[in-house]
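subagent[fold] <- orchestrator: predict structure for attached chain, return tokens only, no commentary.
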Amino acid sequence: MVSYRLLTKNARTCIAVEPLWALFGPMASYFMPLYQKQLGLNEVQMGLLNSIGIATGLFFYSLAAPITDKLGRRRTSLIFDILSWTISMVIWALARSYIWFLAAAVFNSIVRVVYVSWNLLISEDANDEQRSTIFGWINIIGTFGGFTTLVGGMFITRFGVVPSMRILFLAGALSMTSMFFLRYLGTRETAMGKILMDKTKEISLLALTLRQLPRARMALKDPFFLRMVGIFFIVNAISVIDFFRILYLRDMKLLPPLIVSSVPALSALASFFLFFFILPRQKEAKAPNHLAGSFLACLAFQVFFIAMPKGSILAAILIFPSLQASYALLATFRDTVFMNRTEAEIRSERFSLIQSIMMLLCIPIGWIAGLLYSLSPHLPFVLSCLLYTSGFFLARKIRSMNAGT
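subagent[fold] -> orchestrator:
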């Protein structure tokens, strides 16, 4: 693992301000099912909202690379983060019915543009050795939101779900917006970003978007790219399924509200341990091996999660954090493998394309997860087990491949 001080200025800045997002982003996602249910939505409607968000996200992914190359990584991240997070957090705070959540889902799906621009902003000027450290820091900070869910759970217990969530959403809008501006002021455009901004200066956004089509056909002939599409789809599909995890812990495992709110904090501690004691011992060149191992670990802990006894607090605090920490490690190695094995000049296009295909495949997952949960709350998590198994075999195939071109 590379020392934080030796990372690029962009990486250090993005890592330093990321907690302003992590304070509220994970908490909003974690408690969203309870909030929606209190406002009258059922599980199928919740799943449908997730599918609609994915479908609209697919549209924005198709524009992500052209916008990012034309406006630059830095400016794109500022503009589209405000559109996707600030506005959606305010809409969630004011939500009264399904229509409000639908509007918020559409605005929040704009974040797909930022997934491309921000990933390039934070990692593009870094070398291969630095990237696992960078993505490790980001994923570990993301789990830091587990501590805020404990505070959020206390608020909910004291003041109720709806009043508490409205306040948290508004506070999150303020925190995130300040983060976006601080990040903009503390970063600079990447070297490749400057080159592509100059190259695309006289080309329209429509032309840049259409220009992706023949390049997409080339990408679809690349075995490494196709396998990474599968990896990204699996990881994202599982995150969509995990939307129902809080309901599962409460309704099926019969855990007290305080424990349900506490397990994400314990997950953060487990992730800290992995990041500071396990990740530094992993060699960068073996990232594909570690990716396969992470899938296997997630599969094992997912099986334990389904099988853990009802009302067992000890099982919950041992299994759930281990599963979440393994997932954070999985996301770190996924991003590292893709960025390291993709050439710099086509990285934005390939990342945008891989996300677009992933979103297309994931469109029905939210609805399917909601339907499965309504049939039997165990079924969505059984599906996750099948997905983790598939990911393990895909990662094993990537191990022996040369870098994608």
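orchestrator: received. Logging for downstream: Residues 135 and 332 are 5 Å apart (CA to CA). The two ends are 26 Å apart (CA to CA).
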